[in-house]
Amino acid sequence: MVRFREDRWDLGLRGLRVGGVEERGDDGRVVVAVPPFVLEPAEECLFSKGTPRAPGAAPLASGDALDVLQTLVGTEVLVSIAFPSGHLRLVFGDGRHIAAPGRHDPVSGPADWSLGFLGSPAGVLIRSVRGQVEVSTGPADAG
To answer: Which residues, in sequence order, are bridge partners of residue 3?
Structure first.
């Protein structure tokens, strides 16, 4: 589960494997399922291998993000953290990364993303909207 630790949130995905990647909605949103969670990154997120800002790191475009992210299916999550600035960082067992810039990014500014429970629109755990991070309770705590 999501836990705040000193200056960041541990998203609780470590050791889980990517179960699927799919496109949702008419606007081409891409979601990454790491059961029992689902991550919805914005198209401004970076997908890379090695250092997220390494040469060759390029923003995911809605047209090809699905194909690129499909290669993550079955890969273990090693790191899943978010910072108060809205910066998101996922590191996978094969060395690849998904990173969302935070509000202090001088190049692109913040990218939106959310992490919630699979199949539960009310179960958003944490999200960043324009660099403002919101943490909410899951469905078991709602009521």
So the answer is: 10
